[in-house]
Known about the structure:
The protein is an alpha/beta fold. It has a single domain (26-158), classed as 2-Layer Sandwich (Double Stranded RNA Binding Domain). The chain is 35% helix and 34% strand. It has three helices and five strands, in the order αβαββββα. The protein has helices at residues 2-17, 45-56, 131-158; strands spanning 34-38, 60-61, 70-86, 92-106, 111-125. Helix 2 (45-56) crosses helix 3. The radius of gyration is 20 Å and the shape is flat. The relative contact order is 0.18.
Amino acid sequence: MWLRVLAFSMTAISVSSCGWHLQGTSRLSEAAAVTYIDTEDRYSDFHRALRERLRASGARLVEKPEDATAIVRIREDQSGQRVLVVSARNTPEEYEVFYRVEYSVSNQTEQVIEPHRIELTREYSYDATAVLAKQKEQAVLREALARDLAGLVVRRLSAL
């Protein structure tokens, strides 16, 4: 019994002392506490994921750039797929889904993060007999990539 309590206590101490925290729960600095997102497409997967991640990190999102301490400009927000493998009969067998964003961050007076481009990819196999399922798989992968990209942007913001 004491051995279990000791092991649990040691694990809890080591996890808390190394700075470990749940993903998406890191607090943003004061420089990014009030954020405005400047984008052309407010309905993209990335924009939605970025808003969720910022809120989860404690940011207050505002509707006007004048009210913000950080302005995140989404310069590029693009996703799609590419054929990776083709069969002997010239039909696709494997695809790669990609999601690419380019962003910069500024405050009211200067640019804090220069334009930075990030692209993530995932592969999936294609089966012509399950077209609807594969379309759904592509959509799920694209949303997951957008969430991952949003997490990378928020981690960079938390370092300001």
